[in-house]
């Protein structure tokens, strides 16, 4: 439990309400740091800004067209204050936090899509084939404007994910904004029990290339990939398809990268007050030195991004496709005295090149696939799998 002084509470209240009512909250946090001020001249500037915010608050209370509900304004402001940092940082009211803590972890039905936040709204990262979301032609990059009658702009990511879950057979109403459509689509999806995405394997080029699409990077799937690699000829090249791969823990994503990298840094993890960690390749877990290529797209998320970034950053193989989503952080839950809570990002992963995945995502060294401007054509007949064909051509040209 984090103790908060009355001065702290007043400061957060004034700061949040004022910024929410004017230009937004990101600038304020950048000026002050995390709910505070820096020493020296910056501190003097902060106190000056606080006086301005106090004046703004006074006018909101006295001059706004109707008497404002300060509690609602403050809650909305605090949501924005946290989300101005990154999509994963959230403010949960006492009611929301109670639901968050008591949510079931098993036997929960889904609509078959992974969501995050971009530009303030819930955004689809990837869609599971055959799921209710897929049957309604929801695609990665679509924006969920509202769930029921609640705008996702006013909801934290944690709450959005809970609202999409429920008992099997129940429904959820969505308003979905699609590329190049002026009006959102009103959809009703039925929640179902979803299975783990299937894992597929295929041989290409007279069995000289082993193609593996794990579906997700659960510990069991990474173990299965290890078994496949150990059983394969040592000279067999590997094409790892991590497109629309969203599941799995960071440790398993790094473990998968280690199968192809014998030594060196896989990733680092650090934050302002988070003990810095370096994840190095373990030679005993290395499996194959054969050429490898990795396929990625906008639905490559989290653990899969760590795998791709490690292989690309170590110059171990080519990463082919589209820029990934950009998810690589660690959150801490900080409970507040009134029963509310902060889900605060306290550390971010960096690849071997030092770039933060959360901020810059993974950019393939070989671009292939749809651009953002072409995404609206995704439902049209395609001329084969451009990224897959490109990766196969690259591997064919490499010596075993």
Low-confidence stretches: 1-39, 371-382
Order of helices and strands: HHHHEHEEHEEHEEEEHEHEEEHEEEHEH
Q: Return the average pLDDT rounded to an integer.
A: 85
Q: Please tally the β strands and state the result.
A: 17
Report on the architecture of this protein:
About 30% of the residues lie in helices and about 20% in strands. With about 400 residues, the chain is an alpha+beta fold. The protein has three domains: about 5-85, no CATH class; about 105-190, PDZ domain (Pdz3 Domain, Roll), CATH 2.30.42; about 200-330 and about 345-395, 2-enoyl-CoA Hydratase, Chain A, domain 1 (Alpha-Beta Complex), CATH 3.90.226.10. Strands 2, 3, 4, 5, 6 and 7 form a six-stranded antiparallel sheet that branches. Helix 8 links the parallel strand 9 and strand 10 (about 235-240). Helix 1 (about 5-20) crosses helix 3 and helix 9 (about 250-260) packs parallel to helix 10 (about 305-315). The N and C termini lie far apart (about 55 Å). About 40% of the residues are buried.
Would you summarize the structure shown here?
The chain has 400 residues and is an alpha+beta fold. It contains 12 helices and 17 strands.
């Amino acid at each position: 439990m984090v103790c908060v002084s009355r001065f702290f509470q007043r400061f957060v209240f004034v700061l949040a309400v004022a910024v929410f009512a004017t230009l937004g909250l990101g600038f304020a946090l950048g000026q002050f740091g995390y709910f505070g001020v820096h020493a020296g001249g910056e501190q003097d500037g902060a106190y000056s800004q606080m006086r301005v915010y106090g004046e703004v608050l006074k006018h909101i209370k006295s001059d706004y067209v109707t008497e404002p509900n300060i509690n609602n304004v403050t809650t909305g402001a605090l949501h924005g204050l946290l989300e101005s940092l990154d999509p994963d940082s959230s403010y949960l009211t006492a009611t929301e936090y109670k639901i968050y803590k008591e949510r079931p972890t098993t036997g929960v039905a889904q609509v078959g899509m992974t969501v995050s936040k971009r530009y303030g709204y819930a955004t689809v990262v990837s869609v599971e084939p055959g799921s209710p979301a897929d049957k309604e032609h929801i695609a990665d990059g679509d924006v969920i404007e509202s769930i029921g009658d609640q705008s996702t702009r006013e909801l934290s990511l944690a709450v959005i994910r809970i609202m999409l879950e429920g008992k099997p057979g129940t429904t959820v109403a969505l308003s979905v904004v699609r590329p190049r459509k002026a009006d959102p689509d009103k959809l009703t999806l039925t929640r179902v029990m979803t299975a783990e995405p299937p894992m597929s394997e295929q041989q290409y080029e007279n069995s000289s290339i082993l193609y593996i699409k794990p579906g997700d990077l659960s510990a069991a799937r990474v173990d299965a990939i290890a078994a496949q690699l150990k059983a394969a000829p040592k000279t067999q090249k590997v094409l790892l398809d991590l497109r629309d791969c969203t599941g799995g823990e960071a440790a398993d994503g790094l473990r998968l990268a280690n199968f192809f990298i014998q030594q060196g840094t896989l990733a680092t993890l650090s934050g302002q007050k988070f003990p810095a960690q370096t994840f190095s390749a373990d030679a005993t877990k290395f499996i194959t030195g054969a050429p490898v290529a990795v396929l990625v797209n906008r639905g490559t998320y989290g653990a899969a991004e760590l795998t791709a970034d490690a292989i690309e950053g170590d110059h171990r193989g080519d990463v082919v496709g589209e820029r990934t989503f950009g998810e690589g952080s660690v959150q801490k839950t900080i409970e507040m005295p009134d029963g509310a809570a902060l889900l605060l990002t306290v550390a971010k992963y960096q690849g071997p090149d030092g770039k933060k995945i959360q901020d810059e995502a993974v950019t393939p060294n070989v671009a292939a696939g749809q651009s953002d401007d072409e995404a609206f054509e995704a439902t049209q007949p395609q001329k084969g799998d451009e990224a897959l064909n490109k990766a196969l051509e690259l591997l064919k040209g490499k010596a075993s």
